[in-house]
Specification:
The complex is a heterodimer. By secondary structure, chain A is mostly helical. Chain A has a single domain, classed as Butyryl-CoA Dehydrogenase, subunit A, domain 3 (Up-down Bundle). In chain A, 73% of the residues lie in helices and 0% in strands. Chain A has nine helices and no strands. The longest helix of chain A has 31 residues. The relative contact order of chain A is 0.12. By secondary structure, chain B is α+β, with helices and mostly antiparallel strands. Among the domains of chain B are: 45 residues, no CATH class; 159 residues, no CATH class; 102 residues, no CATH class. Chain B has eleven helices and eight strands. In chain B, helix 1 packs across helix 3 and helix 6 crosses helix 8. Chain B is elongated, with a radius of gyration of 46 Å. The chains are: A mainly alpha, B alpha+beta. Chains A and B meet through helix 1, helix 2, helix 3, helix 5 and helix 6 of A and helix 1, helix 3, helix 4, strand 3 and strand 6 of B.
Chain lengths: 179, 494
């Protein structure tokens, strides 16, 4: 089987997974598409070196999460330097924060028509990156603790504690829905 | 009862060992609080798990392929800052370079300052010989006498030393009772000065060093037939009993030639001493064991030891006088055993200038007025334009700008350096919305709508693939009805 076929199969099977993970991490379809495409391109570059010692899904999720975290760090730096260099911030637009903030997830209204789903997504975006990643991988992508540990590059014990904290935090944010 | 709240998350996921699972289960049967918590966690887990999965957007694969063909993913590592690890390396290198430059600068200064040394007695003697030839050495005053006295070192009185002089390393005098040649009473450490001086500059330097080290006397080698005890020609001068250092052993006859050389050097040193003292006013008589007064003007000859004496080391017409308008340069007042304080030449100069003008020569009236204007004004007068706040400060955000005047529009167009035509608007009833949020190079911004919602003017936009109709220009603009509401920018899905 040629590489091109393998790559096509890989993309066909895993692109939706990457996109949905990116979607829940960013909360924004446009950003999710950029993120998923970048992660898939990186995966295609490294697919020859993929040893298959973990599931391809887990391996791809790791790429998506790492790419996402790099973008978050970049946006934070970029936002800081843009403030310093341009000094053009307006007091009028309090919601136009850098893209990774929850308030600037403009597509939420179109992302999930269900009010409760929209609230859950918004609450997810209010969590810190580590909590959000571990929760999405566990609840949405149905990864095991071991797989999550591989995807995030942390020990399994860290996954357990992060997941416990993430659920508690999300519960507080969604108390009215959980009641 | 110990609650099991921290184990509930794992319990939900079935990640506990069998023993732990049974333990938690047993606890839950008897603990309402933990059961409630468990139910809440299950609901949260279910809510997140039920978030809908979305299909790939239309054209996702085509755009992915296009990205792949154009060179791969768009790395977020854009911008003017290098990325890790290059960033770390760059900052580390710049820090190292800065430290090296600072170290070299400091090292250079230290080396320059550390070259200050005191001319040795031998060197000063050698120098004085040429000086003597040039200037002539007056005879010392009649009451000038060599006495053994305490020599002030930098840290206070020094005990008389009986060891031979440190420089040069000549053996002690051959005659009995000789002192240690160039007496070690000098104290301190004498180092060879490597600099070259003119006679005048050397004199000044030696004088400064003597004062700094608290050297007031240099005793000659006693027992010298050529010079006598006090260094003056033997004839016509009172002979004093030679000082005999305790434990001194006269040299053997073989050291005679060395003694002669030492005698000559001592004579030169004495000549130099007299020449130095001739530039100062005559000294007061020094009592045995007391702190010597400064060798000041003759009027103070009767002053008791320890009386503060204001003296001038410059020309005699520079006398402190309240009536005269001449400058008083008080170099120091010796009231105790410590050596004179280090001179602050700048302070002297400024003080002198102050006295001359009588009104503060440091700032002319014009300068003072200007300084006052500067201190009163909140703005630097040289940069009036900087006082004006940026017009865009109130209008712009990282995503877009609401331009409510022609000047705002012009300013933003200038800043964006775009060739696009400026939209025409009647700013009395309209305003221009410009959206320039970040987007890929192969995309364009499309403003979808601008509507009031929730007390804000919500500007909805989306990023679409660039096309002939909508090329990539970096921004999009539209003219809308004028509104004073705060602007909120919302990005829509394509």
């Amino acid at each position: 089987m040629s590489n091109s076929v393998n790559e096509s199969e890989f993309l066909e099977k895993h692109a939706p997974l990457a996109y949905n993970l990116a979607l829940r991490l960013t909360g924004n379809p446009a950003d999710a598409e950029d993120l998923a495409q970048d992660a898939l391109l990186r995966a295609l570059k490294g697919i020859k070196e993929f040893r298959g010692d973990s599931q391809a899904k887990t391996w791809l999720y790791r790429i998506v999460v790492n790419t996402w975290k790099n973008r978050v760090r970049y946006e934070k730096r970029r936002g800081f330097w843009k403030t310093v260099s341009l000094n053009l911030f307006s007091g009028d637009d309090q919601d136009a924060e850098p893209a990774f903030k929850a308030d600037d997830a403009p597509a939420d209204a179109h992302l999930d028509s269900d009010e409760r789903a929209g609230a859950v997504q918004k609450a997810l975006l209010e969590l810190d990156e580590d909590s959000r990643a571990v929760l999405v991988l566990r609840e949405l992508q149905e990864q095991s603790y071991d797989q999550i540990a591989q995807a995030l590059g942390v020990p399994e014990g860290t996954v357990k504690s992060r997941l416990s904290r993430a659920r508690e935090a999300l519960k507080e944010k969604l108390r009215k829905f959980a009641a | 009862m110990d609650h099991v709240l921290e184990r509930l998350s794992e319990y939900i996921d079935g990640a506990l060992s069998e023993a732990d699972r049974l333990r938690v289960k047993s606890h839950l049967e008897g603990c309402t609080a933990c059961r409630v918590e468990l139910e809440d966690l299950k609901k949260i887990s279910k809510m997140v798990g039920e978030l809908p999965k979305h299909p790939l957007p239309v054209g996702f694969m085509q755009r992915l392929e296009r990205k792949r063909q154009t060179g791969g993913e768009q790395s977020p590592a854009r911008g003017f800052l290098p990325q890790f690890p290059m960033k770390t390396a760059a900052f580390a290198m710049s820090g190292i370079v800065i430290c090296l430059l600072a170290f070299r600068s400091v090292e250079k200064r230290i080396l320059q300052s550390s070259k200050m040394v005191v001319v040795t007695e031998a060197d000063s003697a050698l120098a004085s010989s040429s000086m003597k030839a040039n200037k002539g050495v007056p005879a010392p005053p009649a009451d000038f006498s060599y006495r053994e006295t305490q020599v002030q070192g930098p840290g206070g009185p020094l005990a008389p030393q009986s060891a031979p002089a440190p420089e040069p390393a000549a053996p002690p005098a051959s005659d009995a009772g000789g002192g240690g040649g160039l007496r070690g009473d000098v104290g301190g450490k004498l180092q060879r000065d490597e600099r070259s001086f003119t006679n005048d500059s050397q004199q000044d330097f030696l004088q400064t060093e003597r004062k700094r080290m608290g050297i007031t006397k240099i005793l000659p080698p006693v027992g010298s037939a050529a010079m006598g005890v006090d260094g003056a020609p033997a004839a016509g001068r009172p002979q004093k009993a030679p000082y005999q250092a305790p434990g001194y052993q006269p040299p053997s006859p073989e050291g005679q030639t060395m003694n002669e050389a030492r005698d000559r050097m001592q004579q030169m040193a004495d000549d130099f001493e007299r020449a130095v003292q001739s530039r100062q006013p005559p000294s007061v008589k020094i009592k045995e064991g007391s702190t010597p007064d400064l060798l000041a003007n003759p009027d103070s000859a009767g002053a008791a030891a320890g009386t503060p004496v204001a003296f001038s080391t410059d020309s005699t017409d520079m006398v402190a006088n309240g009536e005269k308008r001449e400058v008083a340069r008080v170099r120091g007042i010796m009231k105790d055993d410590r050596p004179p304080a280090k001179q602050d030449k700048n302070a002297d100069r400024l003080y002198a200038k102050e006295q001359e003008t009588g009104a503060g020569a440091l700032a002319s009236p014009a300068k003072r007025a200007k300084a006052k204007r500067s201190s009163d004004s909140p703005l630097p007068s040289a940069f009036p334009e900087m006082a004006k706040p940026s017009l865009l400060k109130k209008a712009a955000s990282p995503y877009g700008a609401a331009l409510r005047s022609q000047s705002d529009l012009d300013e933003l167009w200038t800043k964006m350096a775009t060739r696009e035509a400026r939209p025409a608007a009647d700013f009395d009833r309209q305003m221009v919305i410009v959206v320039y949020a970040s987007h890929p190079q192969d995309a364009a911004i499309e403003i979808v709508s601008a509507a009031e919602k929730g007390g804000k003017l919500v500007v909805a936009y989306r990023v679409v693939p660039a096309s002939a109709e909508r090329p990539h220009v970096g921004f999009a603009s539209t003219v809308v009805s004028r509104s004073e509401l705060p602007i909120s920018y919302r990005r829509m899905s394509p």
